[in-house]
Amino acid sequence: MRVPPALHGTDALWPLCLEIVRHRRGLGPQPAPDAKRPFAWDPSRGFALREDAWDAQAVELFALLKPVLDRPPESSAWVIGQLGQSLDGCIATRGGDSNFVNGPEVLVHLHRLRALCDAVIVGAGTAAIDDPQLTTRRVAGENPVRVLIDPSLQLPATLRVLSDRQAPTLLVCDATRADEAARHIGAEQVLGVPGLMKNAGGPPDLRVLLRALQQRGLRVLFVEGGGITVSRFIAQGCMDRLHLSIAPVLIGNGRPGLSLPGSTAMRDCPRPPSSVFRMGADVLWDLDLRAANSPS
Q1: pTM for this structure?
Q2: Is residue 56 within 8 Å of residue 49, measured between CB atoms?
Q3: Cis, bond preceding 39 (omega within 30 deg of 0)
């Protein structure tokens, strides 16, 4: 009786994902199919696995990561965001404690997204409360450029992302305050964006930020939080995809996740095409915001 060949798993898939990213960044050749990790490349459909050669877990992981992996090397800026929240829509307690809303499987997923993207973006509030490292320490892969949106220059220079030198870091402010920021944290860590705060008293203009990052070769961008920053990217039409991870926990009167302009009629509410993935006890919704449509 002929024994079927062993199926490849996620341990074999992840190095292939990193090769694809290195090719996109101009650091290596396009990965070629071989007997150990069969896959295909189609210019119109991107990368695809031969599903009969991979186990179910690897196939599911590839489906989740494929939209990131398929970004062409010279594409315009493309943005994926994530939020981890409770069943009742909170990302943290009222006091700001968010460690940890989601389980370890979602944390590993976050580190994978960091490794696959050119830059990881957080708002000033998340940086101040969490003091995150924004590195890929849970998975193999290079650290992304770390981008902090801080127009009011409220963040202290003692934050880990501004002082640990583990990865390049850019503090984003309006160009009119770039010199002030440079005196505070060093010019090499400041990205002054002309027109970022052109609406006095309003939120940053994220479209001009995306153009500024693209000019630096940062095209595949990961908005990791927090709720206000992710909501602003969506509201300004600057986010292509959202990973919304829901944990089986009730926080109550906590800090809300998404906060978007509302619709008066249900028929006007966008319904993005979506897929659902189990991650331990959590459920991840993969939402295609660019293809969002309203119900008929």
Answers
A1: 0.94
A2: no
A3: no
252-295 pLDDT, tens per residue? Answer: 999 999 999 888 899 888 899 999 999 999 999 999 999 876 55
- CA–CA separation, 293 vs 295, rounded Å? 7
Domains of the chain: 1-72 (no CATH), 75-259+266-291 (3.40.430.10)
* Mean per-residue pLDDT, 90-100: 86
- Tokens (6 digits) for 283: 């459920």
| Pairing outcome for strands 169-174 and 90-92 | unpaired
Q: Which ranges in 25-159 belong to alpha helices (H)? A: 56-69, 104-116, 124-130
d(CA 291, CA 17): 24
For residue 5, what is the DSSP state?
Answer: P
**Cα–Cα distance for residue pair 295/130, rounded to 1 Å:** 38
pLDDT band at 128 (very low <50, low <70, confident <90, very high): very high
